[in-house]
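User: Could you go from structure to sequence for me? I need the amino acid at each position, not a summary. Structure tokens:
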């Protein structure tokens, strides 16, 4: 590598700001009726309840179609046909048209909730709050939570609501509890979503759980990196398709891998496998393709961000020295 190393962290910071403006306020530019033309199947938590947003999270249409089309039709006719499943397939294709571009980098570069957590963590560093990480041995248990939430809140409860087995609130169970619904609407000055609906027990229970998750995100993010991302069902949903998109994190084994563990310390998701000498384990389900492990790897060409066969950026001692002069691997600023 010659000259100054490519400033990946600085680029990502600007992209996050730009994407936050697009996903939260993009409808202001194109108008409220055209805002959903960007997409109704984004691989990022852009909330449909945000009246000014520039696109919708894919989890909303999946809940709607599972409940109001599949569940309600099966309850009425008792039949499941291709025509009934076709809207789900179309939503999946719309999602994949976006997902194939950036893979799980939608989580690390585009998602407004992910960006907000990083900014809250930076605020915590400014306030010199004591940082926290996952206790030893908790990684596997926490990883399972996002898959449970995806299955139960995005598919099972909406389907049960459509079949008439549960009240209507269950038909959009995830949207009722998603922290993005509160965070992004508040960011636009809309306080209506803060009201707790108490129509029945399900309304109250889901609303209370939504408040709990939002409070957890705001407080935990100040002392822990990406606390909600670790249990986010959209990260699980994206992980299902991570091998199908060309953008990915790869690794060349190195004899010193696992000794300095700088890449692991830099990873916002605390993925231990990134420091493993085994190359095939590096692109874990929790990875958001933020690229910090690449910047904080002191060895040349061990970690790489690749688009198909093309290497976009790779680890290098000069890149490591450049970023290490400014900050520590855990995000603390030097000086």
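Assistant: Here is the amino acid at each position, in order:
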């Amino acid at each position: 590598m010659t000259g100054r190393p490519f400033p990946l962290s600085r680029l990502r910071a600007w992209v996050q700001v730009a994407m936050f403006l697009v996903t939260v306020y993009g409808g202001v530019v194109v108008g409220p009726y055209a805002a959903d033309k960007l997409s109704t199947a984004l691989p990022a938590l852009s909330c449909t309840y945000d009246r000014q947003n520039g696109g919708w999270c894919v989890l909303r249409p999946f809940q709607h179609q599972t409940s109001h089309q599949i569940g309600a039709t099966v309850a009425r006719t008792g039949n499941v046909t291709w025509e009934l499943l076709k809207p789900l397939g179309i939503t999946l294709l719309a999602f994949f048209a976006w997902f194939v571009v950036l893979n799980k980098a939608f989580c690390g570069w585009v998602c407004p909730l992910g960006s907000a957590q990083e900014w809250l963590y930076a605020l915590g560093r400014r306030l010199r709050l004591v940082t926290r990480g996952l206790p030893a041995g908790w990684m596997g248990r926490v990883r399972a939570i996002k898959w449970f939430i995806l299955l139960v809140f995005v598919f099972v409860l909406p389907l049960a609501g459509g079949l008439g087995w549960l009240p209507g609130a269950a038909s959009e169970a995830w949207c009722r509890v998603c922290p993005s619904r509160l965070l992004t609407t508040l960011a636009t000055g809309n306080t209506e979503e803060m009201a707790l609906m108490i129509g029945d027990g399900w309304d109250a229970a889901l609303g209370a759980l939504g408040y709990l998750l939002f409070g957890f995100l705001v407080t935990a993010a100040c002392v822990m990196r990406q606390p909600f991302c670790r249990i986010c069902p959209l990260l699980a949903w994206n992980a299902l398709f991570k091998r199908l998109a060309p953008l990915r994190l790869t690794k060349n084994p190195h004899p010193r891998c696992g000794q300095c563990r700088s890449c692991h310390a830099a990873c916002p998701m605390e993925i231990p496998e990134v420091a493993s000498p085994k190359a095939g384990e590096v692109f874990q389900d929790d990875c958001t393709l933020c690229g910090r492990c690449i910047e904080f790897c002191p060895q040349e060409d061990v970690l790489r961000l690749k688009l198909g066969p093309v290497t976009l950026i790779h680890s290098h001692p000069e890149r490591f020295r450049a970023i290490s002069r400014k900050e520590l691997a855990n995000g603390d600023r030097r000086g």
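One structural detail worth keeping in mind: Residues 12-237 form one domain.
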